[in-house]
Amino acid sequence: MIIQKQYKFYAAHRNEQLKDKCRNLHGHRYGLVCHFEVERTGALSTLFGDFDAKIEPYLKEHYDHGMLINRTDPLYETLQDHERRTGERFRFKVFDAPTTVENLAFTLFSEITEMGFRLAQLEVRETDSSVITYTREDWIADNRDASRLTGGKKSAVTE
């Protein structure tokens, strides 16, 4: 059986490897649609609140109103220097790969799976008209070959 739940968060990012508008720092209201595989063991398989109790606080703490940033982006070093000089703190979600929506989907799929849930697929909406569907098969392939996340370099996504 599949249970579907939706979540959202706001975050900034940029893709420093591109030569277009996405190289600029900008933000999105990301929408997630999680498709959970559950086993029915009686009249009730899973409470919707079981998903919300873990996923909503995690998104608020690690993603919402934060910045997705590639560890190798020169801007990251600049922002860390600013933090050291001023004492100001930013919420970073650090990637060891470009902060593409595909890599975001991989990271979220991994984190939600680590929470003990089994995802069949995850839809990530970057804009009103741009959505990717990331499947369990995609996740397995990315785990087998992490160079897919970086376009050829061996790497992984971290916190």
CATH superfamily: 6-pyruvoyl tetrahydropterin synthase/QueD
The helix count comes to 5
Amino- and carboxy-terminal Cα gap: 31 Å
Oligomer: single chain
CATH topology: Tetrahydropterin Synthase, Chain A
Determine the structural class based on helices, strands and strand pairing. alpha/beta
CATH architecture: 2-Layer Sandwich
Strand order of the largest sheet: 4-3-1-2-5-6
Strands, total number: 6
Mean pLDDT: 91
> Mind telling me the C-alpha Rg?
17 Å
Describe the structure.
By secondary structure, this protein is of the alpha/beta class. It has a single domain, classed as Tetrahydropterin Synthase, Chain A (2-Layer Sandwich). The protein contains five helices and six strands; from the N terminus they run E-E-H-E-H-E-H-E-E-H-H. A six-stranded mixed β-sheet has the order 4-3-1-2-5-6. Residues 154-159 have low confidence and may be disordered. Keywords: Lyase, Metal-binding, Zinc. Pfam families: PTPS. Belongs to the PTPS family. QueD subfamily. InterPro entries: 6-PTP_synth/QueD, 6-PTP_synth/QueD_sf.
